[in-house]
Design a protein that fits this description.
CATH topology of the largest domain: Rossmann fold
CATH superfamily of the largest domain: Nucleotide-binding domain of ferredoxin-NADP reductase (FNR) module
Pfam family, one: SIP
Distance between the termini: 41 Å
Organism: Corynebacterium occultum
Radius of gyration: 19 Å
Shape: globular
Order of helices and strands: HEEEHEEEHEEHEEHEHEH
Strand content: 25-35%
Protein name: Vibriobactin utilization protein ViuB
Helix content: 10-25%
Strand order of the largest sheet: 4-3-7-1-2-6-5
Bound molecules: flavin-adenine dinucleotide
GO molecular function, one term: oxidoreductase activity
CATH class of the largest domain: Alpha Beta
InterPro entries: FAD-bd_FR_type (IPR017927), FNR_nucleotide-bd (IPR039261), Riboflavin_synthase-like_b-brl (IPR017938), SIP_FAD-bd (IPR013113), SIP_fam (IPR039374), SIP_rossman_dom (IPR007037)
Number of strands: 12
Length: 296
């Protein structure tokens, strides 16, 4: 059974106090297979002996892939600590975060599902053109959430970027628990294989040209609040957070400790830009919520 960090550590909206960081070393992974799941989703299998024996108890374990800036004159294998010490920040490797869709720490293998989203960015285009034998380095894995057996029911909400974490949670549901998963995709031609089990209800939500996250928030709101003791996992495009938080915390007073909610990416921003602005974005939402509460 998956377990999670304390709620305080895991809740993505909380700011973590600055910790003294250990120097981090990168691990290598080699592409062993590439499979297109839908027009916008590609599954890549990796061989990575460096993950052998790692303990990965959560269902949202993720890694940070490292991309060397074009203007830098080094390539993998490199010493990350040395690079960070000797080169200016703009020449450090750039990170992109991805979830393990499958991971086998005995064999040292894993799979990642990449949303390819056109030609912009680093990781999406890299995945689009990846082939057997390509090598990439990564940091991590990190992770924080898993379906705990103190809950009877799970509501799992996300777009394609959160589908791997949702799929893994469905595979690790506590005995007897039920789940409702809501996954937003481009349209009816963009469905992919998801775990099926008794007590699991999967709803595909089609954007059909609407802004990412809009239809998803509408459908989840329409479904209402389950009557069982429920945990929520709500991740994906940042644009849905305001609406989902209002639905959960303001309209329905769901306890914050029952909810894991955060933006995995933001429309029009690179991951670096999103990470740099996340705190302000969250603070703005929280201020708007306080104002709303004061009016009632
Ligand atoms: C914990 C965590 C786990 C994640 N797991 C996954 C995962 O398993 N699979 C996955 O695909 N993503 C996952 N993501 C999201 C992924 O890290 C971002 O989508 C990231 O921005 C992609 O990097 P990029 O280099 O392709 O694009 P960037 O350089 O970051 O962005 C370039 C442009 O592409 C847009 N863009 C970025 N992502 C998307 C998208 N999904 N759809 C449409 N447009 C987009 C941006 O808004 C920007 O305009 C995860 C994020 C986090 C924080």
């Amino acid at each position: 059974m998956a377990r999670r960090k304390s709620r305080k550590e895991a809740h993505s909206f909380m700011t973590t106090p600055e910790k003294k960081r250990k120097p981090r070393t990168a691990t290598e992974a080699t592409v062993t297979a590439v499979r297109r799941l839908t027009p916008d989703l590609v599954r890549i299998s990796f061989d990575s002996p460096g993950i052998k024996g790692r303990e990965l108890p959560f269902t949202d374990h993720y890694l940070k892939l490292l991309f060397v800036p074009e203007e830098a004159d080094y390539s993998w294998p490199y010493n990350l600590a040395e690079i960070k010490e000797s080169l200016p920040r703009n020449l450090h490797p750039v990170t992109r975060t991805y979830t393990f869709r499958h991971v086998d720490t005995a064999a040292g293998t894993f799979e990642v599902d990449f949303v390819t989203h056109g030609d912009e960015g680093l990781a999406g285009p890299w995945a689009k053109h990846a082939k057997e034998g390509d090598v990439i380095a990564f940091l991590g894995p990190g992770g924080a959430w898993g379906p705990e057996d103190t809950y009877e029911h799970f509501v799992l909400v996300g777009d394609e970027s959160a589908a791997p974490a949702i799929a893994r949670a469905l595979e690790e549901l506590p005995a007897g628990a039920t789940a409702a998963a809501y996954i937003e995709v481009a349209d009816e031609h963009s469905h992919f294989e998801m775990p099926e089990a008794a007590g699991v209800e999967l709803t595909w939500v089609h954007r059909d040209g609407a802004t990412h996250g809009h239809q998803l928030s509408e459908v989840v709101r329409g479904a209402g609040i389950p009557t069982q003791r429920t945990a929520w996992f709500v991740h994906g495009v940042a644009e849905m957070l305001k609406e989902m938080r209002r639905f959960l915390f303001f309209d329905n007073e769901v306890a914050k400790e029952d909810v894991s909610i955060s933006g995995y990416w933001r429309i029009g921003m690179t991951e670096d830009q999103w990470q740099a602005s996340k705190q302000d974005f969250n603070a703005e939402i929280e201020a708007a919520e306080e104002q709303l509460a004061a009016q009632h």
